[in-house]
Design goal:
Bound molecules: adenosine-5'-triphosphate, magnesium ion
Number of domains of chain B: 2
Largest sheet of chain B: 8 strands, mixed
Oligomer: heterodimer
CATH architecture of the largest domain in chain A: Orthogonal Bundle
Radius of gyration of chain B: 21 Å
Helix content of chain A: over 70%
Structural class of chain A: mainly alpha
Number of strands of chain B: 12
CATH superfamily of the largest domain in chain B: P-loop containing nucleotide triphosphate hydrolases
Largest interface: A-B, 22 and 30 residues
Number of domains of chain A: 3
Strand content of chain A: under 5%
Distance between the termini of chain B: 45 Å
Chain lengths: 383, 343
């Protein structure tokens, strides 16, 4: 198991390196150097100087890449505030050792995942760490601060959307499979295809017009906001007011992101559930005399959920990169919007930083997915 | 005569498909005595599995439906039972095991889990006692190291071992009837023989009646008391194993027996199959369903569907217009007798 995880992490590292080379090269090839715009302004001369030095812009491309890479992985600031991180990490390591040694293999993955999530969370809460990601070409300041000032907003939106999609999409797919070809099933299918085939900006703008504009006109109450994360008066609100204000801002963009994933989950879950419902072992379960509900809940669900794990894990990874279009439509200050402006200005430290964060997310979530897979399906072996 | 364990009358199970109504089981009647072991043979698609699934009431609506008939089990018509009552019978009084042991067990639960679940469903025992019964059941099917193997998952067993587990599961609640749908088809020959021996021993010891669906007449000869031969959704001949083997009355049975390899060397060890293919159960021919492939067919066979009727002194019955006049047993089966029929 440990050997497996180590190997996967090494592969992941290689993948990330390859990803960085490819994206870096593409950015170089995109033309219209980042400095061209700055050069128009004579007062920018010192800034250009600073950038050139920091990023080695007068050097050949491969040199620029190695400079970027060296900066990207070098720690600029690191401080441990108390003993908690050390205790957490050492504790997790000891627990890992004991579990791998003494616990039956099927649950190993769950335990390790849980323990390390808690340990890393505790550790990160009690240290300060920043990497030397340099300064942005747009003059927007330090790349590290820039990216991480946006992740909170993106996570809030992304996780809400994901939760909506999961909570509705998965039961919907299951129900559709159980009632295959019923009116409800057909309705779900049509709904899913509508959600799939409608461009996200139409969904977004449509929600704004109907749910915010018209609804306010009809009811006379402002139920949903169409832009931003909170109202200007937010800091002075009561706790209830704060929650309401947050929800009012969050609902529409979250729904517009959730709709497509929701449709995807429902379709996927429906197909996977149907396959299980027609399987031999379900026939066995029925032939044993199990009540239909137990057949579905105990014997079908767990098998039908296995393939979904991968799908959802990868969605989590992509969510980190933010929703470019939705964030733009709803004026949401997330990573996606930062990313799109950075691409427009060939602000490569920012673009690279975000691409790599997404890449790391995908590598990690893939690993998480594989571990969960093994937890849910005893046939999976790690070797 | 003792009370019948199972008494099926004029059972018809149809499926509606896009091509039309599939008359998978079309008016069959048969009885089963307690402890009787009956073989159900017939070509693929003749309705053997659908018969079994009908008895278990596992035909899924809306596609499939038992249109008419009665299935009396211990004097109770199963078709009139509510779903709850039927659940108590499934797995408890009538158990079923299936063809493919590789896929018949749920891959994400341990063998123990699946056995204990069945036992607790039908017997009012504690989890601990259920475990004990499960271990006993695994030992009965000769799985070595039973207590430890309870913790194993299906993929950790070989095909033969899995079928043993299925048998253990089927018999764990001491059913009156075990339906085995081609239990050994997916296994290699040696394992097949072991499994059949085991089933015979267990069924005999407990007096469990068995409905054994199979393609293998050799297996029937060694295992069963009686046989029913199915063709295109109907029973064409039934009787004791002796009568059917030594004195087949239906040309189809006679053909099937001819397709058996004679290992005793008394007859030729040649294999032949009946020419032609069974009719589509959507477009059944008028008259006898076997007529297009029958070398003895005469005019009436094309007009009237022969009803199944008793013949001879024993319990043998046959659905053939010409049964009395044909003396099939004196005709040694040979390839030459089977004429080519364009299909
Ligand atoms: N769910 C279903 N929907 C439609 N048709 C079905 C269904 N199940 C069975 N049938 C049809 O019913 C007929 C009888 O099938 P059945 O499975 O009983 O055959 P069988 O005798 O068991 O054959 P085999 O030896 O191949 O198992 C076949 O023509 C089959 O296509
Ligand atoms: Mg069958």
């Amino acid at each position: 198991m440990l050997a497996y995880i180590t190997r996967r992490l090494v592969y992941g590292l290689v993948t990330l390196l390859a990803l960085s080379v490819i994206v870096f090269t593409l950015l170089q090839a995109s033309g219209g150097g980042p400095l061209d715009r700055l050069k128009l302004n004579p007062r920018m001369q010192p800034f250009i100087q600073q950038l050139t030095e920091q990023w080695g812009l007068d050097q050949p491309v491969w040199k620029q890449y190695t400079t970027w890479l060296k900066n990207y992985v070098s720690v600029q600031e690191f401080a441990v505030h108390n003993a908690i991180p050390i205790i957490a990490i050492v504790g997790a390591a000891v627990a890992t050792f004991l579990i791998v040694k003494f616990v039956r293999s099927q649950w190993t993955g769950t335990y390790l995942l849980g323990i390390w999530s808690v340990a890393l969370y505790l550790a990160l809460r009690n240290v300060t760490i920043r990497f030397n990601w340099g300064i942005s070409f747009q003059g927007a300041g330090d790349v590290w601060d820039l990216v991480f000032s946006r992740t909170g907003a993106t996570f809030r939106l992304g996780f809400t959307a994901l939760a909506i999609a999961l909570i509705i999409g998965i039961p919907l797919g299951i129900y559709q499979a159980i009632r295959q070809y019923s009116f409800f099933d057909q309705l779900g299918t049509i709904g899913a295809f509508l959600a799939f085939s409608t461009p996200i900006f139409i969904i977004g703008v449509g929600l704004q017009i109907v749910m915010a504009l018209y609804l306010e006109r009809w009811t006379g109450v402002k139920l949903f906001y169409v832009a931003g994360m909170n109202s200007p008066g937010y800091p002075d609100m009561s706790i209830v007011g704060k929650i309401a204000d947050t929800a009012q801002h969050l609902t529409l963009p979250a729904i517009s992101i959730a709709l497509i994933s929701l449709a995807g989950y429902a379709r996927f879950q429906r197909a996977s559930m149907l396959e299980v419902l027609h399987s031999d072992y379900l026939r066995t379960a029925k032939a044993k005399g199990l009540p239909r509900r137990k057949v579905v809940i105990k014997h079908a669900l767990r098998n039908a959920m296995i393939p979904i794990v991968t799908l959802v894990s990868l969605d989590v990874a992509f969510m980190i990169g933010g929703a470019i279009i939705t964030e733009s439509i709803f004026g949401w200050p997330g990573v996606g919007r930062l990313y799109i402006t950075a691409i427009g200005t060939v602000d490569y430290p920012v673009v690279m930083a975000i691409v790599m964060v997404i890449g790391i997310g995908i590598v990690v979530m893939n690993l998480v997915a594989d571990i969960l897979y093994g937890v849910m399906d005893p046939r999976v072996r790690y070797d | 005569m003792t009370e019948k364990l199972l008494k099926i009358e004029d059972l018809r199970t149809y499926f509606s498909t896009e091509e039309g109504v599939v008359r998978a089981v079309d008016g069959i009647s048969f009885d089963l005595e307690p402890g009787e072991r009956r073989g159900v043979v017939g070509e693929s698609g003749s309705g053997k599995s659908v018969t079994a699934m009908s008895i278990m009431r596992l035909i899924e609506p809306p596609a499939g439906e038992i249109v008419t008939g009665t299935i009396e089990f211990k004097g109770e018509n199963l078709l009139e039972l509510g779903e709850d009552e039927m659940q108590a019978i499934r797995g408890g009084k009538i158990a079923m095991i299936f063809q493919d042991p590789m896929t018949a067990l749920n891959p994400v639960y341990t063998i123990g889990d699946q056995l204990v679940e069945t036992i607790m469903l039908h017997q009012h025992v504690s989890k601990k006692d259920a475990r004990g019964i499960a271990i006993k059941a695994l030992e009965d099917v000769q799985i070595p190291n039973a207590p430890a193997r309870l913790e194993d998952y299906p993929h950790q067993f070989s095909g033969g071992m899995r079928q043993r587990v299925m048998i253990a599961m089927g018999l764990s609640c001491n059913p009156d009837l075990l339906i085995a749908d081609e239990p050994t088809t997916a296994l290699d020959v040696t394992t097949q023989a072991q499994i059949m021996d085991l089933m015979l021993k267990l069924a005999e010891d407990r007096g469990t009646a068995v409905l054994l669906i199979t393609h293998d007449l050799g297996v029937v000869a060694g295992f069963c008391d009686t046989i029913q031969v199915m063709y295109a959704g109907g029973i064409v001949e039934e009787g004791s194993v002796e009568d059917i083997f030594h004195n087949p009355q239906h040309p189809y049975t006679w053909g099937l027996l001819g397709s058996m390899t004679r290992l005793d060397g008394k007859h030729r060890a040649r294999l032949h199959s009946i020419a032609g293919a069974p009719p589509s159960v959507i477009d059944l021919p008028v008259g006898c369903r076997f007529r297009p492939r029958c070398e003895f067919a005469i005019d009436i066979c094309g007009r009237v569907l022969p009803a199944i009727r008793p013949i001879g002194e024993g319990d043998q019955s046959v659905a053939c217009h010409r049964a009395e006049e044909l003396d099939l047993k004196t005709l040694d089966v040979d390839v030459d007798h089977t004429k080519e029929v364009a299909s």
